[in-house]
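ARCHIVE CARD
Drawer: 12
Card no.: 0347
Subject: one protein chain, sequence and derived structure
Cross-reference: see card 0346
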Amino acid sequence: MRYFIVALLALGMIVAANAVGVEKVAVLEAKAAVQTGGQDSIASLIINPMYRGLQLKPGEEEEFTVKVKNREDRAVELEPRLWAMPFGEYVLEEGWVNISPARAVVEKGGEQEFTIKVSVPADADVGSYGAQIIFTNETTPSMPYPYPRMPSALTLSVSVWKPPTVVVSNNFIHDRVEAGKTYEYVVSVENRGNTTIPMNPKFGDERYDVRCAGMYCPGELEEDWITITAPDSIPPHSRAKVRIAVKLPEYARGQYEGRINLNIEDPSRPEWRRYDQLVTLSLQVWQKPSSPYEKVFTVKDGTEMLSVEVSVSEFAYEKYGTCGRPVAEPSFKVWFIDPGSREVRVEPTKTVIAETVNLGSWGQPPWEAECSPGMYSVERITFRDTFLIENPEAGTWHLYIMPENAQKFEYTIEVK
């Protein structure tokens, strides 16, 4: 990419993004000194577009047009052809591209339209292919690079892709766990292809590992905490389950993260794009409180009503649930100590249950999720209780809240 940036600066290229598709429409005014027969000459052409990007599957083709305007004071002969760029993943093969007309003479101030047809063979490998379509043989130095630059050219990029053969569900797992316990997680892997695909899950992969640095970064899961059970292959048109058991030591504290590479040889994905077969584990080690939360407040003389509202919320992604281990609903217990040091327990006068329901889910349709209840998935659930005490005694009160299966809660105290 640095090569293109240098070219932009050197030539004063004007680039305008097209809002439709991936094409970048631009006007390239190439004024470059070249040596022809010992005499300096100036090539001045406007090429529109100067970049075209295509996304095609094997066996597909696409056609587009390019306009070349001659700003010279003389006629210019154009013979467009492919020129291999000295960088990129794959070089676009000449047999894939047809240019019409093959030759044209553009008079002073005239314009010529060329039709470019790109046809990807049915047996083409997936990946990124690139080349330039040059309209003249003129070159200029491209210091500090050792290869010349073609000033009168269109850059053509073709991304050859296939629909994924392997589909991994639930590849991000977040859970709230307790130290000293073992938890099991299930990842479903579907083979939609016609051949058996090998699979060899391993914990950790440095190729895709992005290290976090800083005081707020999570700790790293240890390999000896992890046990992976999975088949070594997936038959055509079938699903396989990868079971991940995590045994947390008693000393585990805080947030931990780790990755599992399923090591699936998906023929529709180049090796460098197989990051979608990584399973990320994000575990928050939670310690249940041994004592309740306490809030001290004052009630004045003449107070007619003491109202306390407590609510607790839980998002679906905060707690992992499976068929064998359903997510426990959050709850809480509430009681008071009055100014006379007497315990006061009252039943809630109002209970509210609120849910946010989505017709999608985290990463996959809910009807494809493990143990799916059907079309709907609950993203968030909230429980809210209201407690009333009439004519409370004036003085210092104590409110106690004991949360269950909850990481956070909210409360309000109203004295009126």
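Annotation on reverse: Residues 2-160 form a domain with the Immunoglobulin-like fold (CATH 2.60.40.10). The chain is about 0% helix and 50% strand.
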